[in-house]
Specification:
about 15% strand; 6-stranded parallel sheet; 11 helices; 2 domains; N-(1-d-carboxylethyl)-l-norvaline Dehydrogenase, domain 2; Rossmann fold; 3-stranded mixed sheet; about 50% helix
């Protein structure tokens, strides 16, 4: 049965578009906006309504969902929509924004009487396409009924962490999770680069660890991308660079040295500078062969 919840999705890149399609499949009333309209227009075939600007997208919406590149972009986007945001609108902020950016986002929501929910997601493009993300959510109880059909459409699980979106509880957990994801990605890429350099067949490495404590699904997924040369983005190098830097900054703020994250940020940055920014983050493999003066 179709739900009558109206959702405005602001940002239809890799993740936003996939989430919008999941919302459409669930029968919700979906409006979408993207800074580059061409990225939003294909969603009309899935049942979404394309808006010319953020204000047109959020007008009359029960829930606003932001999925843009970073915290600054999220703030710019909702500022553009401010004139059409009704008091009491629920705003699920799913962008990985970082702790420093979260504060002005929450302040904007308070200023405009919008119910702010800090709701970053775990998962990449395919889980988003399948409606199987994990939503990490922090926000008031009053927001949860409106968000139930939304989070139910985009995710297989919602983990409510706190009742205050401004606390940053969900963002803090997301940064911890992403520190692990990026470490696994970079370790896989570096191991396969070393195998190439030493003349070791990558498959021999995978067979050596198969089924043991050193094996894991993420190793298999990223190794498959590298070995096939298919870097179709699920999570781009450029986005991984941004997230790695947010992780390092969060560690500094907490007095924790993030040595692996810092090295990973440099490795990913090297891959981006060598032309792989729009490819899947498994392309950090190429950083192993890139020399910079």
């Amino acid at each position: 049965m179709a739900d009558n919840t109206s959702v405005a999705v602001l940002g239809t890149g890799i993740m936003g578009a996939a989430m919008a399609r999941s919302l459409c499949r669930a029968g919700l009333d979906v409006r979408v906006w993207n800074r580059t309209r061409d990225k939003a227009e294909p969603l009309a075939a899935d049942g979404a309504r394309i808006a010319d600007d953020p204000a047109a997208a959020v007008e009359g919406a029960d829930v606003v969902l932001t999925m843009v590149h970073d915290g600054r972009a999220a703030l710019d986007t909702v500022r553009s929509a401010a004139s059409a945001l009704a008091s009491g609108t629920v705003w699920a902020q799913t962008t990985t924004a970082g702790l420093d950016a979260l504060e002005p986002l929450a302040a904007f929501a308070a200023e405009h009487d919008v119910v702010f929910v800090d709701a970053p997601v775990l998962g990449t493009r395919q889980p988003a396409e399948n409606g199987q993300l994990t939503v990490l959510a922090a926000g008031p109880e009053e927001a949860r009924p409106a968000l139930a059909p939304v989070f139910g459409a985009i995710g297989s699980r919602t983990v409510w962490i706190a009742d205050d979106g401004a606390s940053g509880a969900a963002t803090r957990l997301k940064l911890v999770c992403n520190s692990w994801v990026l470490a696994l990605n970079n370790a896989t890429a570096e191991a396969l680069a070393l195998a190439e350099g030493l003349g070791v067949e990558p498959q021999a490495f995978l067979e050596a660890v198969e089924g043991g404590a050193l094996d894991c699904g993420y190793l298999r997924a990223k190794a498959a991308a590298i070995m096939s040369g298919d870097y179709t983005p699920n999570f781009t190098v450029a986005t991984a660079v941004k997230d790695a830097r947010l992780i390092v900054e969060a560690g500094e703020r907490a007095g924790v040295r993030m040595d692996l994250a810092a090295a990973g940020a440099e490795r990913l940055g090297r891959a981006e500078r060598s032309g792989h920014g729009d490819e899947d983050m498994a392309a950090s493999y190429f950083a192993g062969f890139t020399r910079e003066d």
